[in-house]
Amino acid sequence: MTRSTKKATESKRSVSLCLALVQANGLVGGFKANAEKVKTACTQARKMGADVVLFPELMVTGYPPEDLLLKKSFLEDCKKTLKKIAPATRGLTAVIGFAEQQGEHLYNSAALMCDGKHVATARKMLLPNYGVFDEKRYFTEGEEPLRFSLKGVQIGLTICEDIWEESGPGKSLSKHIDLLLNISSSPYHKGKAQARRQMIIKRAKTYKCPIAYVNLVGGQDELVFDGNSLVVTADGEVIAQANSFEEEIIYSYITLPVKNSKAEVVGIRSVKTPASLSKIKKLQALPAHSYMEKSEEEEVYSALVLGTRDYIRKNGFSKVILGLSGGIDSSLTAAIAVDALGAANVVGVLMPSPHSSSGSVNDSLALAKNLRIKTFTFPIVSAMKAYEYILKETFSDTEPGLAEENLQARIRGNLLMALSNKFGWMVLTTGNKSEFSMGYCTLYGDMAGGFAVIKDVPKVLVYQLSRWLNRDKIIIPQNVLTKEPSAELRPDQKDTDSLPPYDLLDPVLLRYIEEDASLEEIKVKGLSKAEIQRIARLVDLNEYKRRQGPPGIKITPKAFGKDRRLPITTGRRGS
User: Fold this and answer.
1) Element (H, E) at 215
2) Which of 18, 42, 57, 441 is catalytic?
3) How many CA atoms lie within 13 A of 563 on its CB side?
4) Domain 296-495+541-547 carries which CATH code?
């Protein structure tokens, strides 16, 4: 064979790799549970003939571990757990996210496990420090990317943010690899999955390199992770994709032409996998997998269900309780709770006052019947009279107003918390983002509880989700969807007595809160400049309330809390 013939033969040689992407639901600090997920997945992947198994970013610790990373015992447990995991990777190449302590430095790292041994470590080079991310508080940036050789092909390894910037480490790797891997823990918000998918397709085309991307799934406090792991060819074709909000393993064969040199490259650390992993395996049929695309409403609803389920169960609760007012917010919250935990684990409480309409009571009972949940009814008139008697002398020279209205909400909050204390049920609050933004909620009243399911769902979206929920059969009574919103704390009260119509309010809140627009930039037909200024001022004035509210699921690009950190005490309001 001549030298030129040999070169031509080598250039045409290709290798098929079987990839296993493990879309796992981890637990922060749950080292034993996380390790078991890794071991089980490795066993399944080995049976399927997988060559490479990918786990999410910080799989060993759970994500995000936040200030647990400052505890030496936590990092020591992480190190021990990773060591215990290693034997489970025999016969495989596995990439597993963990927190790596090296001297005084802490890295967000990926362990390259080959045939039962930890052979190399990749370190995250780009550390996000915006929105909900605070990685520069804990981690040191990695200095060089890692590639490894397997079956004659070169494979690059990156971690989450490393791929989001086109000029990041993926770019420097792409010229010297045949396949790029990325392990990630990318949290969800509305529209994020589509944007992420397009970003990965764009990177694959730009880098002229296939990409295998695995993402975390599950709820962690206010964050929910959607999964949507995928494998993309160099020309941008998606050849495998995991379902959103589901824990699963997807398998994919990818055929790679052997084209990149094995020579050392300046600025890239190169390692070889053991010869035992270079044997050509007989290709076998992979399990059938169906990717189900979701509408925007189904996607958001799935996020709320998963976030609620994981928050309740991961915190050791099994049952929840919530107040049923006959309104749209409590109705949607109850439906989410039932889908998250099952009807037997959801209890509704009706607490009518003299201002509650018979329609609201009937609507609450109809909802409970549709959801098949247990209810209690506690009329609060006697408690209201008791407070009136106690405060009679002090309030004697004043007109009834907001204080008396808020007492009703606080009586209800007390009753719900009493049931929670007695039976160990977590209280779900039912306020939405529009009300939460404007302070249209009562501290220690309707804000009292352990978890705020829809606190990041604007009111208009609450209606969209409720109508979507009713697409096949009536779950939320039709009257709830059509009647005018009211807190029913005084006769003939309507939300529009205090707030603009929600279809006008929500666009202002989106621009002011999520987009940080100035008042000069915000224009909504139907609202005066003065009304827009009032909205912004109320948003800022009520920061103190939001700080005291329970956590809830982030589903918009900017939620209250880690996303939006404004001072309570400030001389700048509504600007």
Assistant:
1) strand 211-215
2) 57
3) 21
4) 3.40.50.620
Determine the Cα–Cα distance for residues 57 and 228; give it in Å rounded to an integer: 14
d(CA 575, CA 572): 7
By C-alpha distance, which of 75, 159, 175, 176 is closest to 125?
A: 159
Is 483 among the catalytic positions?
A: no
Provide the pLDDT for residue 6.
44
Listed in order, the ranges of the chain carrying CATH 3.60.110.10 are 17-277
- Which string of DSSP letters, residue by residue, matches 56-119? -TTTTT-S--GGGGG-HHHHHHHHHHHHHHGGGGTTSEEEEEEEEEETTEEEEEEEEEETTEEE
The yes-or-no answer on residue 161 being catalytic is no
CB count within 10 Å of CB 375 equals 16
Examine the pLDDT at 52 and tell me if it is beyond 60. yes
**Residue 575 confidence (pLDDT) above 80:** no
SS3 187: strand
Catalytic one of 37, 124, 314, 558 = 124
Copy the structure tokens of residue 473.
């059969």
CATH of span 17-277: 3.60.110.10
Token pair listed for 180: 């790029």
Q: Which two structure tokens, joined as six digits, stand for 328? A: 């749209």
CB 355, CB 491: distance < 8 Å: yes
Judged against a pLDDT cut of 80, whether residue 55 lies above it is answered with: yes
Reported pTM: 0.93
Whether residue 160 lies in the annotated active site: yes
Whose CA is closest to 239, among 201, 208, 207, 202? Answer: 201
The tokens describing 294, both together, are: 């979701």
Residues in a beta bridge with 254? 17
pLDDT tens, 371-419?
999 999 999 999 999 999 999 999 998 988 889 889 999 999 999 999 9
Kindly report, as residue ranges, where domains of CATH 3.40.50.620 are found in the chain: 296-495+541-547
Average of per-residue pLDDT across 118-122: 96
Strand 179-184 and strand 211-215: the pairing is: parallel
Give the model's pLDDT for residue 574.
67
* 24 backbone dihedrals φ, ψ, rounded to 5°: -100, 155
- The two tokens of residue 157 are 């390894």
Q: Tens digit of pLDDT for each residue in 134-163?
A: 999 999 999 999 999 999 899 999 999 999
Give residue 352's Cα distance to chain centre: 35
**Choice among 42, 78, 114, 160 that is catalytic:** 160
Amino acid, res. 158:
T
Q: Is the dihedral of CA 391, 392, 397, 402 positive or negative?
A: positive
Region of residue 98 (left: phi > 0; alpha: psi -120 to 50; beta: else): beta
Distance CA 301, CA 316 (A): 23
What is the distance of C-alpha 453 from the center of its chain? 13
Instruction: Give the integer Cα–Cα distance in Å for 391 and 449.
Output: 26
**Closest C-alpha among 289, 208, 259, 388 to residue 20:** 289
* Cα-Cα-Cα-Cα dihedral sign, residues 440, 443, 444, 449: positive
Interhelix angle 296-314/459-469, nearest 10 degrees: 100
- Strand residues in 217-334 grouped as ranges (E): 217-220, 223-226, 230-232, 238-241, 248-257, 269-272, 320-323
